Amino acid sequence: FGAVKMAEQSLRCNGCHACVESVGWVTSCSHLFCQSCGCAAFEGRADPRCPACENVIESTHDALRFDVQPSESYRALALAGLTPSVAVDILNQSLSFYTYQV
Exposed site from 19, 35, 62, 69, fewest CB < 10 Å? Predict the structure, then answer.
């Protein structure tokens, strides 16, 4: 029941507070942005910073674009080849991030 209830909640952009429904951006400092806010903050910037906390985005892995509803083929391949302990660690981090956002 708890997992179903969590799935019903929409993630909101930490910039404009709009629902992130298709594509979003996530940062290593645990902030989430809609496509518009993320592109404005991270694409083509010489020294990108997180709009929510001003942390410097030092690497391309510190701000990632993602699909909120990825395809079935992506879902099938995303964790393929990883050990169960790595997959569980990723799941735990994902749940912690989601809980922090909602």
Answer: 69
